[in-house]
Amino acid sequence: MMRWILLPTVCLFTMGSFNATTLAQAPIQAGEFEVGQDDWPWWRGPNRDGSQTGGKGAPLNWSESENVAWRVPVPGRGHGSPTVLGNRVFLASADEKRDVQVVLGWDRTSGKALWECVVHQGGLKTNSSRKPNEKASLASSTVATDGKQLYINFLNQDSVLTTAINLEGKIVWQQKICDYVVHQGYGSSPALYQDLVIVSADNKGGGAIAGLDRKTGEVRWRIGRPNKPNYASPSIMHLDGKDQLIFSGCDLVTSLNPNTGEVYWEVEGATTECVTTSVTDGTHVFTSGGYPKNHLAAVRADGSGKVDWERNTRVYVPSMLQRDGFLYATLDAGVASCIRCEDGEEIWKSRLGGTFSSSPVLNGDLIYATNEDGTTFIFRATPDGFEKVGENQLGESVFATPAICGGQILMRVAKFQGDVRQEWLYCIAE
After folding, report:
1. Structural domains of the chain, with CATH
2. Is the pLDDT confidence value at 23 over 60?
3. Global confidence as pTM
4. Which of 137, 266, 339, 344 would you label with 159, given CA atoms 20 to 30 Å apart?
5. pLDDT in tens, 305-318
6. Contact present, 117 and 152 (Cβ < 8 Å)
């Protein structure tokens, strides 16, 4: 269990739409804060692997009128997941009408708007002659929190910058990571480790992975990367008796010392462009990507360089889950699959339907997987065969992965009124 002290502070409130100039104050209760069963503090949740295996189970049924605790409109657009800290929910968004990139805060119990922090004013348009992928957004990173501050990455003015924000919605520091040549877009999320926030920005102009001091934003270490496009997020895993920072893409699987950036090992075990965040069974690092080839591989995490198996399976955007020696994946093309970690044998597969960008989430022994049309399929994480438990529809366009914790599902969806796309944040609870 990871623990931090939540210091006395204040949050900022608005009664209606977000307005940073009309904010009242209300105290947050001081005391010890634990990132645990009821929180979703960063990309892929408290375990960093898409799982939430303790606490109250999430609802199995919902709709526009069933099991909706609250819903609120989200200004702008983004594909980042909700971040949950105690009784607060945070989300990044890019509002092209106002030409801003922001982080937003809500009360978790009521959905009341707390504050908006304008991280960047202007700079949303790129100088690149290449247009980003039409599915990309300018706010695809997920907020990370250590219980004291929030951390977010944005692509702005052809650079990737990391910003720290306090729990009052005020910027503490901002640090440029590197210049960024746009190919498909940008979506890497920050990872927290000890007193560092670790960020990445692979791109065709030559990217970087860097460890920043969480208090000051000072660059404590930085390593250069190949001149290749890639979109994966860094992940911290305890493997081979030590903590390893695992990163896949640019035709490599890379393991670094998260404290120093020292390379533990690096092998050619990935394709060039990866979006997914790697997972592990304690022995292997499982990587997947989709360009220039479909790719799913099991790389030994001991530095031996051995790739135990590889499959021509397209798990390009949705990250995988690992449970009890089996991988569970939702392929981009709408197929659920169970693969044995030891040898890569596919145990079962079942067509779900639609196209997937959102990653599946494991809640207890149930997998929640949402396609781009807003249909969430619930099925068991078991090698015994595909067993669907539920199917629910919400929204018309979904790219963000939900946060599932404390018996709630925080889901970012979009609806259309004519040609106008409006995003909403839903809290689903029984």
Report:
1. 232-274+276-311 (2.40.10.480)
2. no
3. 0.91
4. 266
5. 999 999 999 999 99
6. no
